[in-house]
């Protein structure tokens, strides 16, 4: 009887040993990309390859969720890093030389390899260096629309291994990470928000701001989708939001203020345009954002450019009796 019990216990322990890793096996709901199509693709020189003499950090955000940065304010680039027993998930890189440092830092401090990389959108300043982690064996995930500009603009970054359309999930180390894309676009048509439910945190790069005016003339800009995205972020009501730049995380209250500023800016530019004002008159009569002159970074540098970008959007989307 004792022998049978010992055999049963041994079998049970063996079964647990076999089952346990499978229960926490890394997985995702994205679709594979045929990398053979892009093998040997042409890329432009990488300006960040030798840009090693920059400030860099890896600081805990909350509960094994860290924030990596490179560059100094206001030119800081950042992304979140989740450390698990199964490996690390990293959002964006932003610098090829710093990506090599970050890979070593994660290995040294946590004895973890980078398992997943999420590319937030197909802009080189955030994706530079993701190829380092892909070459080391990480799986790179992006929204499907990212592939075309990565290839077409010859960006020296990782070509995604897996892509998704609007929603996807990653399972890593017993944690679920949520990926969200707004189909109407926002800052690019390939943007991904990354939600870490356990930590009540989110990566909302470039679309969200932390007491800062949006960058210049909004650049790769889709106004209706941007507002839809901000509404979605507000609905999630997470505690901490990394915006991909600057020093401090944003809060839901910051995103409400940003949305209200952008909708006010749009409404004013549209109304002044309908009054027949030319550009030289119009920008001088916009008051949106004045209330944040002393509270937000970038009033002197960004606000006039914000007006210009919104004017361009409005002008391209009006159609009156002409």
UniProtKB/TrEMBL annotation:
Lineage: Bacteria, Pseudomonadati, Pseudomonadota, Alphaproteobacteria, Rhodobacterales
Keyword field: Hydrolase, Signal
Family from the record: Belongs to the metallo-beta-lactamase superfamily. Class-B beta-lactamase family.
Protein name, per record: MBL fold metallo-hydrolase
UniProt domain Metallo-beta-lactamase: residue ranges: 76-245
Matching Pfam families: Lactamase_B
MF-aspect GO terms: hydrolase activity
Biological processes annotated in GO: antibiotic catabolic process
InterPro entries: Metallo-B-lactamas, NDM-1-like, RibonucZ/Hydroxyglut_hydro
PANTHER family linked: ACYL-COENZYME A THIOESTERASE MBLAC2, METALLO-BETA-LACTAMASE DOMAIN-CONTAINING
Annotated signal sequence range: 1-25
Organism: Pelagivirga sediminicola
Keyword Hydrolase part of the UniProt annotation: yes
């Amino acid at each position: 009887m004792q022998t049978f019990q010992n055999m049963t216990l041994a079998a049970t322990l063996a079964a647990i040993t076999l089952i346990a890793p499978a229960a926490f096996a890394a997985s995702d709901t994205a679709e594979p990309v045929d990398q053979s199509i892009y093998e040997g693709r042409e890329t432009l020189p990488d300006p960040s390859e030798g840009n090693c003499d920059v400030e860099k950090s890896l600081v805990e955000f909350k509960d094994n969720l860290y924030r990596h940065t490179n560059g100094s304010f206001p030119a800081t680039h950042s992304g979140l890093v989740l450390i698990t027993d199964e490996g690390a998930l990293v959002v964006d890189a932003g610098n090829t030389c710093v990506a090599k440092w970050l890979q070593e830092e994660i290995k040294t401090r946590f004895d973890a390899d980078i398992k997943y990389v999420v590319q937030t959108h197909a802009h080189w300043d955030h994706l530079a260096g993701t190829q380092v982690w892909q070459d080391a064996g990480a799986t790179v995930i992006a929204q499907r629309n990212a592939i075309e500009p990565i290839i077409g603009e010859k960006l020296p970054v990782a070509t995604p291994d897996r892509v998704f359309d609007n929603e996807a999930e990653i399972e890593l180390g017993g944690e679920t990470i949520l990926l969200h894309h707004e189909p109407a676009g926002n800052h690019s048509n390939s943007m991904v928000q990354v939600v870490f439910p356990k930590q009540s945190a989110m990566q909302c790069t470039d679309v969200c701001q932390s007491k800062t005016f949006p960058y210049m003339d909004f650049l790769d800009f889709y106004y209706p989708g941007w507002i839809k995205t901000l509404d979605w972020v507000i609905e999630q009501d997470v505690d901490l939001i990394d915006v991909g730049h600057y020093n401090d995380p944003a809060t839901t209250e910051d995103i409400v203020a940003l949305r209200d500023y952008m909708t006010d800016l749009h409404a004013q530019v549209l109304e002044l345009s309908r009054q027949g004002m030319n550009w030289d008159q119009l920008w001088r009569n916009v008051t949106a954002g004045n209330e944040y002159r002393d509270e937000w970074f970038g009033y002197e540098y960004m606000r006039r450019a914000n007006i210009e970008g919104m004017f361009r959007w409005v002008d391209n989307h009006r159609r009156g009796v002409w």
